[in-house]
Amino acid sequence: FKDVVRQSMKKNGVIRTEQILIIDLNGLSSKSIADICGVVKMITKVGTCFPEMMNRTIIVNAPTFFSFAWKMVKTFLDARTQSKISLFSNHIKGMEKMNELIDDDQLLSDYGGSASSFDEVMQSLSNEDDTNDGCKRQIVEIISKSRKSVDIKLDVGEKCELTVYTRSTSGAIFTIQREDNALVSTSDVKNPTPSSKDDKDPKPYNVVISRVLEGRNTYNIKAKSLTSNALDNFLVVGKVRHISKE
Question: With helix as H, strand as E and coil as C, how does 165-192 read?
Answer without folding.
Answer: ECCCCCCEEEEEEECCCCEEEEEEECCC
